[in-house]
Amino acid sequence: MEAAGTKLSRSDLTRTFWRYIFFSQMGWNYERMQSVGYCYSMLPVLQKTHPDPEDFKEAFITNLNFFNTNPVVGFPLILGAHVALEEAGASLETTEGLKVGLMGPLAGVGDTLVWALYNSIILSIGSVMALEGNILGPILALILVFIPYLAVRYWQFFWAYNQGTELISQLGSGAIMRVTELATIVGLIVIGGFAPSIVRMSTALEWSREVEVRGEMTTQVINVQQQLDAILPYMLPVLVTWLAYWLLKRGWSPIRVIVVLLVVGFVGGALNILG
Amino acid sequence: MLTAILLALWAYACIWDILGPVFFLGFRPLIAGFGAGIIVGDIETGMLIGGTLELMALGVYTYGGATIPDFTVGAILGTFFGKTEGFEVGIALAIPAALLLTQVDILNRFLNFIFVHRADAYAEEGNVKGFERMMQIFSHMIWGFSRAIPVFLAVQFGEDAVKSVSTFFENNPWFNQGISVTGGILPALGFAMLLKILPVEKYPAFLLLGFVLFAYLSVPLVGIALAALATALVYQQLKYRGQEA
Lengths: 275, 245
Known about the structure:
A: 275 residues; mainly alpha; 6% strand; B: mainly alpha; 0% strand
């Protein structure tokens, strides 16, 4: 646990905010999704709150961990709260717990609000107008994207920052340890459900055999995936995640693990074993 | 040639927008088609193609981050071909183009792992400048060019090229399957890295609880998070009993 923390200036906050606006999903990839965008947004803050070079390096590396949530509703909330925790000198465990605990649930809320509801409404209205040859259709949609989206992101970031700072100032230093533990537990439970919801792996294998039913020969098809589901749902995603974890624990580099997953996925998919 | 370049740049801008700014939601067909209409000088066709594709695809945009047919490129190419060949031809080309680009999307999301591994290396060195340069200059390039190049080629070389490429993928489904299965498996590594830094061995029960809630009870993630909070609070109440002031 670090001591008192570092005061951040208003310009540190705005820098982080604009980096988030322009880069939140740049470099998005299957392995760690929004991690580089998140890390890039946090760097100006991390540089201030971790003056010791070794200490900073650790924070830099840790903030490249897996991260994914809704980029419009969710991401700025987590970022704002994280900045407040950094300012209070919270440990990397606490901040990772915060990110892990909030990203999954907020992704669900944000995707529903932003992608499913708001976008569908404004774009279907815009499309109907456009099909009537009314140029105001797309223009209206553009206005209803630009202004509300910028405003809602700005508000979330600064609201979470202000709330976070206030909350932390009310707690004593012993309480931070308990918050860390709380965040860790929440994070672990959420990952337990989040990982199988994101990792996709199933088998397309089928067995067919001739069986005699009341004197008549019929073909019985056994779907392997159904059998696996009966034993343990999401068995393959769990196994492959556990395999990757086990290999990392044994000191394998992430690159080597990627190669293994790549070969399994591509060969399995191409041969129609997985699908 | 100029039209091909401008449409390619527009395709780049549309995908760039959703990678962060979300200033104009360019990846949605209505907007992509409208912009393409302005470029080819036929806003009417742009709105018709874009609006039609938008209403057709409305349902597929309900999830963030998932790979879906690329109606962005579909709307841009549909507008271009629709202007000269008519609305029906435009739509008839837009849909296979959108389906074709689905594979490109998976491939580029996969190739982007280069950035995260470069970032790891910069972090090990503590090289902030290098990381920032990568983000500012390169981080959108794979995504952007994966849309800009097909648009440029399709506009420049026309219908036949679009058709012959889509036949290759139709005739070789194993290639698509391999790529899409790999895309589903790779996040396992991200979660594994996360688990590695968390005290899994100290609290294995919590991980198991989250899994049971999701896999057997189908609790949505918000519900899992609330259950997690409740569990953590109860755990701490019992653990710190008697220490309360």
